[in-house]
Amino acid sequence: MRIVTWQCGFDREALKHPFGFKGSALTELWQIAVQLTDDQGNVGLGTGVQSVLWSDAGVFTRLHESGGNSTMLSLTNYALDQATKLEWDSPIDLQQQLLPVLTSYVDALCPDSPIRHTFILNALVPVDHAAWQLYAQAKACRGFDEMIPTAYVSGLTERHQRLVAVPLITYGTSLEDVRELAENGCSLFKIKVGADPDGNGDLDRMLEWDSKRIAELHHLLKSYRSDDTESGRIVYYLDANGRYDTLDRVQRLLDAADHVGALEDIALLEEPFSEQSTIEVGELPCCVVADESAHSVEDAKRRFAQGYSGLALKPVAKTLSASLQMLEEASKSDVQCFCADLTVPPYLLEWNRNVAARLKSLPSMKVGILESNGAQNYVNWDKLVGAHPLPSASWIHPERGVFTLSDSFYETSGGVFAQPDLYEAMATSRKLTR
Fold it and tell me: How many CB atoms within 10 Å of residue 88?
């Protein structure tokens, strides 16, 4: 296959409030749309959301929010230009050819401060999804299952009818908002830890703040019950985003959680340490998960060897191609996998939902899970729902904390092969008519 032409556009989506994690905060998220045409006349549309703070906090600090977004967008455009020079058999093949070229490009761009590989993958998401649309058309695939190459299907064996909706609790999420989520049936809460309350990088204050936050959230949530968890209680997914420095400090955080009775309800602890960390985590009393430190099969193997027993898959943040490769490796190692969000709109979320619907349930859960926090964070969420090709579908909005997947979800693959007007217009700079 060959790409002969491409177009790319973007829009900015405002957030309801500063989105705090990694000791900093986002105020907006850039939405990217890409349109590709191949040499057979097939047209593919792909979308992405840029999260510079998540993918490379160093870039976010050095270039600030707009500068980091501009840099990522320029990388997407460079990738598109390079893609027209390549022949490929599958999107995975295309990505494997692009990655060394893009790595050399960003290394030259920032020789003194190397850009993380996750930043490159984040930039590639709309390219990858457009390539999968082209691939599905070229192979006359009738749905998501038929599109996945045989070598990568072993981890996608389930067909869930229900997915627990996982909300995100950032540093600034109020207790009243948390209570409302619990009242609405949410049973697994993703909680950001690793705060920098005084803005000076003091790790003792971070631990103090995180411990207090877990205590107050557990005090609020411990009395709620759920039929979707094995314990019958609400469970927690702590996300540290690499902010902790030593095993001792993490253990002290878990000891503090144990002191208030929350430890047994911690289902997942994600990325306690930096990407470069060689710390063994197998003795920690919960499932430790790799996320942004795992962006290739080699990274995943390294983390598994360090005792990480969970892997966050992010087709919406690290590309479907990279996610499929890492899922296959995780399946060989009996590592738990689930799909984590990047605060994406409903149409882009369908790539995650299609994978999440086919993953085995976590040991702490009776059903599948899907993190989705866009409704909590986007100012214009209703507009983004309206852009979905199937905005009235039963699985778009959770009811009592659960997304229900009807037969039509599997028949339509959630709409991922559609090309919504909003994103086609964004990619081509065409003005939408009302």
Answer: 20
End-to-end CA distance of the chain: 36
Sign of CA dihedral 319, 32, 138, 117: negative
DSSP 114: P
pLDDT digits 0-9 by tens, 3-24: 999 999 999 999 999 998 888 8
How many angstroms separate the CA atoms of 429 and 108, rounded?
30
CB neighbour class for 201 (10 Å; exposed up to 12, middle 13-18, buried from 19) = exposed
Instruction: Give me the residue label for tokens 């959301």.
Output: 49
Residues 6+ away with beta carbon under 8 Å from 117: 103, 295, 296
**Phi, psi at 383, each rounded to 5°:** -65, -40
Looking at the predicted structure, is the pLDDT value of residue 130 above 60?
yes
Distance CA 236, CA 191 (A): 7
Tell me the pLDDT band of 434, cut-offs 50, 70 and 90: very low
Q: Any idea of the CA torsion for 142, 76, 57, 59, to the nearest 10 degrees?
A: 180
The answer to whether residues 188 and 361 touch, using CB atoms and an 8 Å cutoff, is no
Structure tokens at 204: 């003792």
For 432, which DSSP code?
P
Please give the pLDDT value at position 161. Answer: 97
Pairing of β 162-166 and β 43-50: unpaired
**Torsion over CA: 410, 416, 419, 420 (sign):** positive
pLDDT of residue 433: 52
For residue 54, give the nearest of 319, 349, 318 by alpha carbon: 318
Determine the 3-state secondary structure of 45 from DSSP: strand
Number of H helices, E strands in the chain: 16, 13
pLDDT at 152 over 80: yes
Phi, then psi, of 311 in degrees rounded to 5: -140, 125
User: Please, which pLDDT band fits residue 324 given cuts at 50, 70 and 90?
Assistant: very high
Mean pLDDT of the chain: 96
Taken in order of first residue, the domains within the chain and their CATH numbers are: 3-143 (3.30.390.10), 150-416 (3.20.20.120)
Q: Which residue has the tokens 């695939």?
A: 141
Calpha distance 237→243 (Å, rounded): 15
Cα dihedral 349, 276, 257, 181, rounded to 10, equals -10
pTM: 0.95
DSSP 219-272: HHHTT-B-SSBSSSB-EEEEE-TT----HHHHHHHHHHHHHTT-GGGEEEEE--
Joined together, the tokens standing for residue 331 give 């399946």
